[in-house]
Amino acid sequence: MNQNDLEKQMRLGECFHSIRVLPHAWTIVRVDGRSFSRFTESRFAKPFDLAFSELMVTTASALMTELNGVYGYTESDEISILLPRAWDLFGREVEKTVSVSAGIASAAFTEAYGQAAHFDSRLWVGAEDTDVVDYFRWRQSDAGRCCLNGWVYWTLRQNGMGYEDATKASEGRTKAWKHDTLMAHGINFNDLPSWQKRGLGLYWGEERKDGLNPITGESVPTVRRKLIVDREIPLHDRYSDFIAELLKP
Ligand SMILES: Nc1nc2c(ncn2[C@@H]2O[C@H](COP(=O)(O)OP(=O)(O)OP(=O)(O)O)[C@@H](O)[C@H]2O)c(=O)[nH]1
Ligand SMILES: [Mg+2]
């Protein structure tokens, strides 16, 4: 087989590489820590550790910068990055976007923490602005559910229950039962930090600074893009309104 034929033949084996996200579709990259239940077990406080959350923010910041994200959202061990509607990174290739984003997240977390950690990655695609609003409402509601379940589980464990009993104890229980159980142990769910219950957001704002004109030596006001980390994101319909506002052209 000559070199050209071999090249053509071998490229056929890379068939997944040509799959692209449809033009104009909204795209969200979601990375998730691999086996983080085990990874976090002996390294971070349960159910929530601010130091872990800060590592996730560092990782989300790297993704926002490298992928030119519009909005970032993180809860637990996952990060969602909304790309601009017209993104053209890597020609919108799925394989490349998924693999590079997992690489960025793994490298940023590992560099910040000093021990190797891995992330997987997937793409979510939506046609309408309302789909994007629904997506973030979905992740936010997941954060709320996991936060309540996590606090109940670890409160029972820290009060002497074993793994199986603590898991069974809250199976099929109502939200009210879970709130009451926490209250009985002196924890008012409503008073827990917002970032634990709702997750947190990252978006671009502006920062005004005085720069120096290198020719005249004069001070000139400059405006720079700055990543804002919001640990007190709005809830329910106010969150929908916030996301909808971000999507406006
Ligand atoms: N200790 C501690 N654990 C956390 C914190 N935030 C998230 N986690 C853990 O991260 C894990 C995330 O769960 P999953 O992503 O479903 O599970 P996983 O083990 O990462 O499995 P895969 O994602 O399928 O690889 C949960 O077990 C959480 O308890 C934290 O602040 N402290
Ligand atoms: Mg995970």
Provide a descriptive summary of the structure in words:
This protein is of the alpha+beta class. The chain has a single domain, classed as tRNA(His) guanylyltransferase (Thg1) (Alpha-Beta Plaits, 2-Layer Sandwich). The chain is 47% helix and 21% strand. It has helices at 3-12, 36-41, 50-67, 94-113, 129-158, 163-169, 175-184, 194-198, 236-247, and strands at residues 26-33, 71-75, 78-83, 119-126, 200-212, 219-230. The protein has a six-stranded antiparallel β-sheet with strand order 4-1-3-2-5-6, with helices on both faces. Helix 5 (129-158) packs across helix 6 and helix 5 (129-158) packs across helix 7 (175-184). The longest helix has 30 residues, at 129-158. The structure holds guanosine-5'-triphosphate (GTP) and magnesium ion (MG). Magnesium ion (MG) is lined by residues 32-33, 36, 77.
